[in-house]
Design brief:
Largest sheet: 2 strands, antiparallel
Shape: globular
Number of strands: 2
Strand content: 5-15%
Oligomer: single chain
Number of helices: 1
Distance between the termini: 41 Å
Order of helices and strands: HEE
Length: 55
């Protein structure tokens, strides 16, 4: 499955995350839209840099 996803997304200029517990998975973690994130593939890091709540 991972091989197919990598083949199908290789042409894109944005990162594609695999095997992360978001959305319709058991832990149901919500990712806020429009916030800055940090992605470091060498460290397997995905970090939300801003609050998802705006006042």
């Amino acid at each position: 499955m991972v091989k197919i996803i990598k083949e199908r997304t290789a042409r894109y200029k944005f990162p594609v995350l695999l095997d992360i517990d978001i959305g319709h998975s058991d832990s149901m973690i919500t990712i806020p839209l429009g916030v800055k994130v940090k992605i470091d593939s060498s460290k397997n890091l995905f970090q939300i840099e801003e609050s998802g709540v705006r006042r």
